[in-house]
Amino acid sequence: MHVAQLISDVLGRDVPVRVVAYDGSKAGPDSSEVALRVLTPRALARLVTAPGTLGLARAYVSGEIEVEGEVYELLHAMADLALHDLSRPERVRLARRLLPVWLRHRQPVPDLEYRPPGRLHSKSRDRKAISHHYDVSNRFYEWVLGPSMAYTCAVYPTATATLEEAQAAKHELVAQKLGLEPGMRLLDVGCGWGGMVMHAAAEHGVKALGVTLSRNQAEWAQAEIERRGLGDLAEVRHLDYRDAPESEFDAISSIGLTEHIGKNQLQNYFASLSERLRPGGRLLNHCITQPRTPGRRELDPFFARYVFPDGQLEPVGHLISVMNDSGFEIRHEENLREHYALTLAAWCANLEEHWTEAVAEVGVGRARVWRLYMAASRLGFDRDNIQLHQVLGVKVSDRGASGFPLRGWRG
Hints:
Radius of gyration: 23 Å
CATH class of the largest domain: Alpha Beta
Mean pLDDT: 92
Keywords: Lipid metabolism, Methyltransferase, S-adenosyl-L-methionine, Transferase
CATH topology of the largest domain: Rossmann fold
Number of strands: 11
Domain Polyketide synthase-like methyltransferase: 140-377
Number of domains: 2
GO molecular function, one term: methyltransferase activity
InterPro entries: CFA/CMAS (IPR050723), CMAS (IPR003333), MeTfrase_dom (IPR020803), SAM-dependent_MTases_sf (IPR029063)
Structural class: alpha/beta
Number of helices: 17
EC number: 2.1.1.-
CATH superfamily of the largest domain: Vaccinia Virus protein VP39
Strand content: 15-25%
Order of helices and strands: HEEEHHEHHHHHHEHEHEEHEHHEHHHE
């Protein structure tokens, strides 16, 4: 068995990737700028129990496979496998061929693979799932995200804008859509490190409250609020959105939270936000979506086990229907898919720039997870396998008044 040829067959015979294996075998075009190096038979054993992308991801995270060149370029070259994975018959054939290797070199599942315990989307399980991803290290996230500490899709005013300019533009776009004005009260659910909260307070004089299930985020954000002198207007609490104050807010922003809610919880989620808004109050929901109704509901196994446990993506049409049924009149919707590809490219570049420090901070396995997942996500947005939508809704008054002008956001 020539290992390189076997791996090349898994990737696809026409994939322009060099494969170099521990047995001295080679496959693929010598001219390719990216290469996959199979360092140990343990990498092949991974493919028996998880043929396709999950097995390859386990081998990469464990250091049993190495990539020469940019991971994004490798994934781009093998896009059909990365986005669609192997068919069931192909999986069975591969497992049979590699069974002797597995018997000699089988390995336990990497420690970084995680499935939170408890009832799906209970408060305790959601807290564990969020902590797994976000309570890694604030310093690590500072290196990856940059000074804005915004871990959601930016909005690029031009293709040459910096990441910081694009994140500021995103926060301002949300503020404009919500019609924020001095004296208003904003609730930002799933607020992350508080970027929207601080923008609303500093740039619009809004009294803003953010809530997050990540203790690390809440502590960092509150310290930054005090450092910027925004304590009179801005606050971030370590709190479940379901436990947020129920008093009437003028506006609510939900930026990157809906992906963690789960399809069966969406009706209650949007209804709870509606209850917290005054008549005429607006909700801006910003989240990753499926580009169409999916044939299967499960998140990609690599993302589900290593990146976003319990995450679930829905098509934007379903989200709009649930928002509408929960008491919101939909006023505007837009797709920012290309902007997220640009955002992820910037995060990938930041990680590479700080690779040595990142590895020292969180370990090489976790750093590899982030390198792989961000490159794969960038490819997904580039190829329209996933999208990013902003949906703006308003809670109309009993007489149907929305407070919107005939055109634009502000009355």
